[in-house]
User: What shape does this take?
Amino acid sequence: MQTGHDSANPIQVLLVDDNPGDTRLTMEAFKDAKVHLTMHVAKDGIEATEFLMGEGAFVGSPRPDLILLDLNLPRKDGREVLAEIKANPSLKTIPVVILTTSAADVDIERSYMHHANCYISKPVDLEGFLTVVRSIDDFWLSVVKLPPGEAA
Assistant: This one.
């Protein structure tokens, strides 16, 4: 399937999650990804914003092709990060997959109101979690045609 990227240019994925265990599991599950990708990690909302804006320790960071965003983050909440991404003309076309423990209707509704591209509640069991991450790979990285990155 076409994703708009060739093997010389890996898909850039930004994972925003403060849980080291979930981060490790997500990265492990993506090791067998069907496409060549580079995974970047931000452990809170401030780091995510700095990465996206190329600021601080993230000067020169690549524009992600896909963002996996937890909602419950320290320093800056994922809900706020989502709203900022979708309000920014240079970032709003990046697909944002909410990947969070919350299954609250209010979080789901607010995420879609802020133009999240999909909402996934993290399963609590290991096998369920790995299945979800593999499904993200199957759909977002193998089937979906991602928008081209903006020229710098």
Observations:
- Residues 106 and 136 are 23 Å apart (CA to CA).
